[in-house]
Structure formats: structure tokens, C-alpha cells
Amino acid sequence: MAAVPHYPEFDCESTAKATRWTKYIKRLKNYFVAHNIEDDKRQKAILLTFVGEATNDIIDEIPQERVTPEKNETHFDKLVSAVHNHFNPENDTEYNRFVFRKIKQNSPGIEEFYRKLKEAASMCRFSDMDSEVKSQLITGCLSEKVRQKGLMNSDMSLHDLINYARTTETIASHLQTMRLEYNNTATATTAPIKKVADEQRQPSNYPRQYQCRNSNRKYPHERGPTSCPAFHTQCTYCGRWGHFTSACFRRLNDGNRQRETNRPPRTQTNRRSVNRIENDQRNPHSSGSDTEYVFHTVELGTCHLQLKWIRQQTGVHLYFWGFPTK
């Protein structure tokens, strides 16, 4: 006799028993197909063998009429249905539906949200479970695009809507990756420029050199203010101690005043006045001290007329220019 292969027991102590029982039976049916087990009574016997001691105790408490198949029913399906009803009694249906309506998507990832909806809906005894799951998915999802798609296409199936949500989520993830890659590239490109700018702003390792106002030498002095070469020197210009004559402020100020006094006065020119300029070297017609200029400006309506007479040894020359006032 061949040994019975290992199959995990059913955990009837944890929560969501009805949902986990449905998954357990689904995997067990795959096991039957893989091992070519088609006989109804044999399937029931294998189920009772695999589920474990705790689940067998629950099955023993179920009334016999609930596990006895009627016409066109199998022993295996009747037992599975009886255990499912035990884990999910009819008087809990309204509460389970209340829990189902409260499910919202709390984190990114449409697959996890969809899985929770399917598990909760399996305990609510909905006549059209896909329609209910679709409605709750539209209501509780985080994506505005998915919600808008579902509201605008009332005839869209749950399968099509969940595929659209998966596609939207994948595209958003790709865009985020591309955006991060672009930002990293831009940062790597601008980093050397910023580094150079920061280095230019950083203070130099060499101390800045200043000039002493008393001696015109390097400042600060290595041994303090008393080491200044002019500290014990008397100025020959103002008579004060502590600075050289070349650095005397009074001497510099007096020199500036003298230069201002000797500067020739500035001449005020008026475009409407006549000015006589002797020996203008910039004019190509100038030939020496015998050249004489006369300027005159005349306003005619909206036009200025500028006249220029040049008297030289060769004769008198007349030039004029006209230009608008505005």
C-alpha cells in the first residue's frame, strides 16, 4: 500500500476561518487533480485525513443531516459546505457585510486591497460577488484615475477594472523611477559647478594683507601696534607723533584742497548761446591759432538748427546741422 503523501492540516484556531477554509479546499482539489483522485468517497476520506484532529472534532459536532448528501450532491461537497457554514453562520452575514463596506485601501498596492475585498466578500453570501467587489473597489481605492474610470464606465467588469488599476499602478511606478533617475542625473551634472562656486566662496588659506595707515607698511604688525615703524616718529608736516609724513592725513587733505583751488573753472555751455572756441584741435579744418569758431543754435518749430562758422586764413566757412527737438 502506497504511503499517504504529506498535506498541511487546517488551522481552525485563527481568525477568518471561512475564508481560509475556502482556500484550503481549493488547494486540496488541485491535489486531487494532480493525483488523479476522482472518486467522491475517496475524496471525502482524504479530506478527513488531512484536516487534522481539531477540525475533525468540529465535523463530529455537525448534525448528520447537514453532512448527508441529497440527490445530485456529493459527499465531499456536502461536507465542505457544512464546515463552511459552521465557520460562517447565516446570522453573521449582515455583520460580515458591514465589515466588507468598511474596507478601504490604506497603502499603495492594488493587489493587497483586491485580495482583502475578495476574502471579505466570500463571507457575505452576495448573489453577485464580483459586482459588490467592484463597487467597493471604486469606493475605497486610493487612485482617482481608477475611481473615475469605474464611475464613467458602469458596464466595465471587475476583471477589466482591476487590470486597468494594475496598469495605472505600474505606469506610475515607472514614471517615479524615471523621475528619480532624471533628478540624480541633474544633480550629478550640477554638483561640480556648485562645488566650484562653494570653493570660490570659501575664505582663502592665506590671510588678507592690509596697509597700516600710519606707516603705509604691512598690517597687522607682527609684534603688535607698538612695533609699527612710525610709532615713535614725529610727523614733520603736522608735528604729531605716531605716523610718517607720507601718511599724514592733514598733508593729504591740504594737497587735495590746493589741487581744487588750482583747477580752472568749468565753463557752462548752452545750446542757445554763442560760444567762441580758440584753436579746436579736433576739427580737421583747424590750422593754428588763427582759426576761430562760432557756434549758434536756432530753434525753428520742432527742429533745432545748429550753425558753425569757421574763420581761417583762407576765408570763412559755414556748416550747419538740423535735428528734431523730440
Give an account of the 3D structure.
The chain has helices at 17-34, 40-50, 53-61, 64-67, 75-87, 93-101, 110-121, 129-140, 144-152, 158-201, 249-262; strands at 210-211, 218-219, 275-278, 292-300, 303-312, 315-324. It is α+β, with helices and mostly antiparallel strands and 326 residues long. It has 3 domains: 17-163, no CATH class; 210-262, no CATH class; 275-324. Helix 7 crosses helix 8 (129-140), helix 8 (129-140) packs across helix 9 (144-152) and helix 9 runs antiparallel to helix 10 (158-201). The model is unreliable at 268-290 (pLDDT under 50). The longest helix has 44 residues, at 158-201.
Structural key phrases:
single chain; 326 residues; alpha+beta; 3 domains; 4-stranded antiparallel β-sheet; two-stranded antiparallel sheet; 11 helices; 48% helix; elongated
